[in-house]
Design brief:
heterodimer; A: 270 residues; mainly alpha; MetI-like fold; globular; B: 257 residues; alpha/beta; D-Maltodextrin-Binding Protein, domain 2; 2 domains; 9-stranded mixed sheet; 9 helices
Chain lengths: 270, 257
């Protein structure tokens, strides 16, 4: 299923001076804070901080929760993106705005909203508790839900953009050749938007990994259960700023490794 | 054309920066007494009381302006250590104040101006009939405390230890307000917070007093910062907190040192 590739040679673009200056300022804006973090890192005690049981628990929980959130977001978010990209129905734009709202909502507000929905006295939470004995706040499941809530919109809009920009003639061709709708989706549509799917999943995962406000508001903070890395960093800042810096570096390192690795391998970017 | 847009953007940025910095000594000077403006870094729990005290102070000292920056004491201490400019620091605990004293960032030795007792916070009407610290250990209760790293968690642990009670909290919250909101939203049955927080929360929750023998009292020290540009006004404000502000502090639930 090869798309017509653009193989014509392009001139190396040379940038106008203002662009170079502003782009350098933009890059410096991101690099300088990182540099600040690196320069203040207490390297001598770093390994000792890293080996502590609480740090390892937070790291493990962060990976588990962010990967689970990404899995849920893929399961629910891809159908949602497909719906927004392919179907027209009344109220679509409103629904679409509502599902990406967590991107602009302060995460703490999102956490409160989740409490009002899934909390002990929440709209659905009360029913969940009395019928199934399921309590979400203060549990790892709660942390996963908070991360999914905040991170899924990134997947939805990325995949939707991919679906909108893809060449739908391939789908039409498959249909005329007798493939069922389901086969077309699995064998044509999703493979064609694979770069968007991966980019969306990576963005979603990265956002989930860094999630703080909704998690601490909805799931609380308890080591090993709901204390993810960002929460551990925040609390360490209160008592032991050195440990907080080391923790931040770990989070940064893990995220950078994944983002760089995935970009080169999957997105084919140079 | 393009160059002109860039220049305009750069200019807009410079103007924005300049206006954000602003003149620091604004306000008409009165002939006698201190004048100008000061910035007070104060612990979040002082928000309501200090806002009132600041307004009263400005009224009784015409030509002055008191600006506040409220945040957790440890965040404020960190900001000041990183070079944030201000005149007065009011902390909700001694350790954060001591950090600045040891770093040589204070102009004098700090003075305690208020105390705050701990209290158990429960839902309105106390549906779980919690009467003492010992009740917090009952099974089936959802208890939230502050994390041990923040002052309220440290104090709560001390009180529970004094009472010989071991509590398994569902969550160790990052600050008092989060403990309070978990109880107010009905997510938790009880928590340990300051008396002032229960008072400020109003209708949704109520407090259960902790026996004085088991209670732990938080001390609030205040100090002039070394880099203050207006020590006269800073001194006047601190002495006002000790005198004219006393009644306001009491109204919000603080006790006198």
């Amino acid at each position: 299923m090869a798309l017509p590739t653009r193989s014509r040679r392009r001139l190396r673009p040379s940038a106008p001076l203002p662009i170079v200056i502003l782009a350098s300022a933009g890059a410096a804006f991101f690099i300088i804070p990182l540099l600040g973090l690196l320069l203040r890192t207490p390297w001598a005690s770093a390994w000792q901080q890293l080996g502590s049981a609480e740090v390892l628990a937070a790291l493990r929980l962060s990976l588990l929760a962010s990967l689970s959130a990404t899995a849920i977001a893929l399961t629910l978010g891809v159908p949602l993106a497909w719906t927004f990209a392919r179907l027209t129905f009344p109220g679509r734009s409103v629904l679409r705005a509502l599902t990406v709202l967590p991107m602009v909502l302060p995460p703490v507000v999102g956490g409160v909203a989740l409490l009002l929905a899934f909390g002990r006295r929440g709209l659905v939470g009360g029913w969940l508790a009395t019928t199934f004995g399921v309590h979400l706040p203060f549990t790892t499941a709660g942390a996963i839900i908070a991360e999914t809530f905040v991170a899924m919109p990134f997947l939805v809009i990325t995949v939707e953009a991919g679906l909108r920009s893809m060449d739908t003639r391939f789908e039409d061709a498959a249909r005329t050749l007798g493939a069922s709708r389901w086969t077309v989706l699995w064998r044509v549509t999703l493979p064609l938007v694979r770069p968007s799917l991966i980019a969306g999943a990576v963005l979603c995962w990265a956002r989930a990994l860094g999630e703080f406000g909704a998690t601490i508001t909805f799931a609380g903070n308890f080591p090993g259960r709901t204390q993810t890395m960002p929460l551990a960093v925040y609390l360490a800042l209160e008592s032991n700023p050195d440990a907080a810096i080391v923790l931040s570096l770990v989070l940064l390192g893990v995220s950078l490794a994944v983002l760089i690795g995935l970009r080169d391998r999957w997105l084919g970017a140079s | 054309m393009r160059a002109r847009v860039v220049t305009a953007l750069l200019l807009a940025g410079i103007v924005g920066l300049a206006s954000a910095c602003g003149p620091s000594g604004s306000g008409s000077a009165s002939p006698s007494g201190p004048s100008g403006a000061i910035t007070v870094f104060a612990a979040s729990s002082l928000n309501a009381a200090f806002t009132t005290i600041g307004a009263d102070f400005e009224k009784s000292h015409p030509g002055t302006m008191v600006r506040f920056s409220f945040a957790g004491s440890s965040s404020l201490a960190a900001q000041i250590q990183e070079g944030a400019l201000g005149d007065v620091f009011a902390s909700a605990d001694q350790p954060n104040m001591q950090k600045l004293v040891q770093a040589g960032l204070t102009a004098e030795s700090p003075m305690v101006f208020a105390r705050n007792d701990l209290e158990i916070v429960v839902a309105k009407g106390n549906p779980k009939h919690i009467a003492s610290l010992a009740d917090l250990a009952r099974s089936g209760l959802v208890i939230v405390l502050c994390a041990p790293a923040v002052p309220c968690g440290h104090y709560a642990a001390q009180a529970l230890q004094k009472a010989g009670v071991s509590v398994k909290p569902a969550s160790q919250e990052a600050d008092v307000k989060s403990v309070l909101s978990k109880v107010a939203l009905g997510e938790a049955d009880a928590g340990i917070v300051y008396v002032t927080d229960v008072k400020a929360a109003g209708q949704s929750v109520e407090g259960v007093a902790i026996a004085p023998a088991l209670n732990v009292v938080a001390e609030y020290p205040i100090v002039i910062l070394k880099d203050s540009q207006n020590r006269a006004l800073a001194r006047a404000f601190i002495s006002y907190v000790h005198t004219g502000g006393r009644e306001t502090l009491a109204r919000y639930g603080f006790t006198n040192p």
